[in-house]
Amino acid sequence: MNTYKIAVIGGDGVGPEVCREGKKVLHKIAELDKGIGFEFEDFPWGCEYYLEHGEMMPQDALETLKKFDAVYLGAVGFPGVPDHISLWDILLKIRKGFDQYINLRPIKLLKGAPCPLAGVKREQIDMLVVRENSEGEYAGSGSWMYKGKINEVVIQDSVFSRLGCERVIRYAYELAKKEKKTLTSISKANALNYSMVFWDQIFEEVGREYPDVETYSYLVDAASMFFVKEPERFQIVVTSNLFGDILTDLGAAIAGGMGLAAGANINPERLYPSMFEPIHGSAPDIAGTGQANPLAAVWSVSQMMDFFGYEEWGKRILDAIEQLLTEKKSLPRDLGGSSTTEAVGNEIVRLLERA
């Protein structure tokens, strides 16, 4: 039996609640498939930990997490802790420390999921955004000079290395080649005359090695419009850290909302653990009320199973989500139902068992 060790960081707000339902799905998989097992260890890191200890997680946290096969993250962020601290001191620290340079965010309109776009068919929204996850606009490079003075100046650098750009672009080309899909690069080279010109150049260079992959390139403003007006243009998308962050929230909005938005932070070489998470916020205003939608956290479990090589289980999880959405017996509140977080998780488990 293959046993996978999962580090669970529930985090803040509704994070622990949605992670609990994701763990429930993994337990059910292990029960149904005797060839797979999971061992979980929970870590109390996040904003509450910060308020007590002055840090989001211990200094040796990455060393602790190295022994695991994957990290399962709920959400971070809570009133009283600045957002840049909660982001940089746990989420980005793990992404960068474990070289999780690929961020995969599926934008797929599932059966039964609500879509705010009129007249759009389900098959028109089915894309995967490959977001650069280690540098770019989130490199943390810059300076803050003359603080509090009339001539105060801040400089935020975007860092684009050849290694960083080439490896994410190549990953996207390989994915498009394997799945026989189109590949679209999204940049802003007309205005960002160094970083995005460089990105476009590398996209073209790498593309010469993949003559069979059909490619497109859009400026980010045009791409934003087409995400809404003609989402069928996109199959595999590759873009920078910031653009990927923004566009995938837009993608979530047209594919059922943030409650159905999952993300995987991948170290393709598997030298370090990869991390799987719903990409919604911590929603502290509804924490503990049972109103949180766990489906994004469950979808991220599907991504985890794909990463471990169990694509059939990944598909079965998505099928269960679709069945829940179409039957409408146990819908969470943000999708028009009245079921609790726990009840939604229980229904997913029941549907998995029935499949």
TrEMBL record:
Pfam families associated with the record: Iso_dh
Cofactor(s) this protein requires: Mg(2+); Mn(2+)
Domain of life of the organism encoding this protein: Bacteria
Reactions catalysed: (R)-malate + NAD(+) = pyruvate + CO2 + NADH
EC number(s) from the headed UniProt entry: 1.1.1.83
PROSITE patterns in alphabetical order: IDH_IMDH
Keyword Metal-binding set for record: yes
Domain Isopropylmalate dehydrogenase-like residue range list: 5-348
InterPro entries: ICDH/IPMDH (IPR050501), IsoCit/isopropylmalate_DH_CS (IPR019818), IsoPropMal-DH-like_dom (IPR024084), TTC_DH (IPR011829)
SUPFAM superfamilies: Isocitrate/Isopropylmalate dehydrogenase-like
Alphabetized UniProt keyword annotations: Manganese, Metal-binding, NAD, Oxidoreductase
GO MF term (any one): D-malate dehydrogenase (decarboxylating) (NAD+) activity
Annotated family: Belongs to the isocitrate and isopropylmalate dehydrogenases family.
NCBIfam families named in the record: PRK03437.1, TTC
Protein's recorded name: D-malate dehydrogenase (decarboxylating)
Organism in which the protein naturally occurs: Hominibacterium faecale
